[in-house]
Amino acid sequence: MDIPNIVLWVLQALVALAFGMAGFMKVFRYETAREQLPWVKDVSHQLVTFIGSVELLGAVGLILPRLTGILPWLTPLAGVGLALVMLLALGFHVRRHETPVVNIVLLVLAVVVAVGRFTLAA
Known about the structure:
The chain contains five helices and no strands. The protein has helices spanning 3-28, 30-36, 45-68, 74-95, 101-121. It is 82% helix and 0% strand.
């Protein structure tokens, strides 16, 4: 295993963990999400569940396809999808005058994973 591949696996694991935890809270612990994330009170329960489901699927998509070797091209696409989620979240939080530091960090990490996996696959 070469160094860039190891670095990408570590980044994938960290990004998947972050999105997995956030998605799990939004889908299965809605009341906790309402307490910890101020914006949750201002959008519908269905939207929060949808966002959480997308985050959970993205987290799985970052790890499982590449790990199993089944449709590994889905891994960089999951990175692109999660980057898009963070780009939309960034705009949402900026409009609300909230600090989007976490969104920016996750956006950059998701892009690095996507670009890295697209590049290594080529």
